[in-house]
Design brief:
Blueprint lengths: L13 E18 L4 E14 L4 E7 L3 H18 L6 H11 L7 H21 L4 H4 L7 E5 L8 H10 L7 E5 L5 H15 L4 E5 L6 H10 L5 E5 L7 H8 L6 E3 L5 H10 L5 E4 L1 H4 L1 H14 L4 E3 L3 H9 L6 E4 L17 E2 L13 H7 L3
């Protein structure tokens, strides 16, 4: 909820939405069980108002086709809300109803989330407050783990890369597994654990590559390596399978990056499908969806981490009960005037108004996709 003590700014009115598609090189190629990614396809969103205040957000679109589809939906949605006051909760309900027959999932969910995030940013900028404070929280610190690299690779290379990911005093790293050869998973995880030492949290992400049976076998093979959590080993929506895994895995089960709106949080936790959850601002419904999802998690006594978008997520985690870990990636650094700063493995919201996002003109010119 917005800070009750904040001075109410004049009401703002939407005049349009502009988007810019960029592909920026990633610091490390990221191989997963699904694909190898070398560039981050980002869609940058500006929400413009009659009063001259601009709100911003951005999306990681996974593929060129995703960026193009989301941009089209943004253009259409902008026409639907043109002239409306910037009231994010009302706009979210209005657009959800307008897109109900298409289905507020996938690219449609991401487009509407980008609008929601930008709308909240607009209000916080107008109030001259960091978004975390506008939501009623302090600029609270959250521990960060590095997710920039450690895709599928051989043990020696993984060990070298893991050490490089410990810059800025990172307290944890995420390792992608799911090789066809199960013994290679064990060898890679062993090499990484030996390289980073016993005091670094080691998260393992299978990117939905396994069955329930395979997950249990591979998890047993990783025993003794002090795995902090196992993330999305099976199909993300298989809550029954996740509930079975929870009772048998030797370490916590983390899911949530694919929750479809706050309803997904409710369904998963009602099914007992997770030990931990992570919210993705684009898929859970922007700021509005995140706050609702976080409230559901809090009601279940569940710790909440973030997925991607660290510059946005750091504000949302600051306002989240049971905030756990920030997933850090540097992918947006190339197009930001003020990239995120991690110090001693900790992030906190910047003092700048709103989200603090300002696009770097040189980065836009260099990486823009025509």
């Amino acid at each position: 909820m917005p800070n009750a003590n904040a001075t109410s700014p004049p009401e703002l009115h939407i005049t349009g939405i502009r988007s810019h598609y960029v592909r920026v090189p990633m610091r490390f190629p990221l191989g997963t069980s699904a694909a190898t990614v070398t560039e981050a396809p980002l869609l940058l969103v500006d929400l413009e108002t009659r009063e001259g205040v601009v709100g911003r957000s951005y999306l990681f679109c996974y593929r060129d086709s995703g960026a193009k589809a989301i941009a089209l939906i943004l253009q259409e949605a902008a026409e639907l809300i043109q002239g409306q006051p910037v009231r994010p909760v009302e706009i979210a309900a209005f657009l959800a109803r307008r897109y109900a027959l298409l289905g507020v999932t996938g690219t449609a969910r991401m487009a509407l989330a980008a609008i929601d995030i930008a709308a909240w940013d607009t209000l916080a900028v107008a109030a001259q407050m960091p978004l975390a404070r506008f939501l009623g929280a302090g600029l609270n610190e959250v521990k960060a783990y590095n997710s920039d690299g450690l895709g599928l690779m051989q043990p020696g290379k993984a060990a070298e890369e893991a050490v490089r990911l410990l810059d800025h005093g990172m307290r944890g790293v995420k390792l992608r597994l799911g090789n066809a050869d199960a013994s290679l998973d064990r060898d890679v995880a062993t090499a990484v654990r030996q390289a980073v030492g016993p005091d670094v949290a080691l998260m393992v992400d299978y990117n939905q590559a396994l069955t329930v049976t395979e997950t249990l076998a591979r998890a047993r093979a990783l025993e003794g390596l002090d795995i902090y959590w196992i993330e999305e080993p099976i199909r993300h929506g298989d809550y029954r399978g996740c509930a079975q895994l929870r009772t048998k895995l030797p370490c916590p089960l983390q899911i949530g990056e694919n929750f479809d709106g706050p309803e997904g949080v409710h369904d998963a936790l009602s099914a007992g499908a997770a030990d931990l959850v992570m919210l993705d601002a684009a898929r859970v419904g922007g700021v509005t969806g995140w706050m609702r999802g976080a409230a559901i998690a809090a009601a279940h006594g569940m710790e909440v981490s973030s997925h991607l978008f660290p510059e946005i997520s750091v504000h949302l985690l600051a306002a989240t009960p049971g905030a756990h870990w920030l997933e850090y990636v540097s992918w947006a650094d190339a197009i930001l005037q003020d990239p995120m700063v991690i110090e001693q493995g900790v992030a906190k919201p910047p003092q700048r108004p709103g989200l603090g996002l300002q696009w770097c003109p040189k980065g836009l010119a260099r990486y823009r996709v025509a």
